[in-house]
Amino acid sequence: VCMLCHQAEADPHICGRKLENRGIYVHEFCLLLGSKRFQHRIRRAGIMGFLLEDIRDTVQQAARKRCFVCGKSGATITCRETGCDRSFHLPCAVEGECITQFLPPY
C-alpha cells in the first residue's frame, strides 16, 4: 500500500508506478506531488532521490490532514489556489474535480 495515498492498486496513469525501498512503498506521482522536500542528485538517496527520512516526515505531516474528498487522514496534495487550504490524496483529486499537473523537470 502506498504510504501517501493509502491505496494498493491505483491507476498508474494518475499515481505512477509503485516504488519500494526498505519497506517504504509509494507511488511515483504521489511522492513527486505530495512531498514538500527536495530531490537529492544522488538517485540512490532513497526513492527517486528523496531521502527515506523525508518521506517518513511527509507521511507524518500528512497524517494530520484530512482529504477533502474522502475525509480520511493522510492527504499529501495541497491545493495551490490562493486562499484554499484543501488537501487531497492524489487518487481522490479526480473525484474532487481537481486539476493536477506534472511538468518535468520537477
From TrEMBL:
* UniProt KW keywords: Metal-binding, Zinc, Zinc-finger
Point out the coiled-coil segments of this chain: none
* Name of the protein: PHF7 protein
Any one GO MF term held by the record is: zinc ion binding
- InterPro entries documented for this protein: EPHD (IPR034732), PHD-type_Zinc_Finger (IPR051188), Znf_FYVE_PHD (IPR011011), Znf_RING/FYVE/PHD (IPR013083)
Signal peptide per UniProt:
none
| Gene Ontology CC entries for this record | nucleus
Task: Show where the PHD-type domain sits.
Answer: 1-106
> Lineage, please?
Eukaryota, Metazoa, Chordata, Craniata, Vertebrata
Which Pfam families does this UniProt record tie to the protein?
A: zf-HC5HC2H
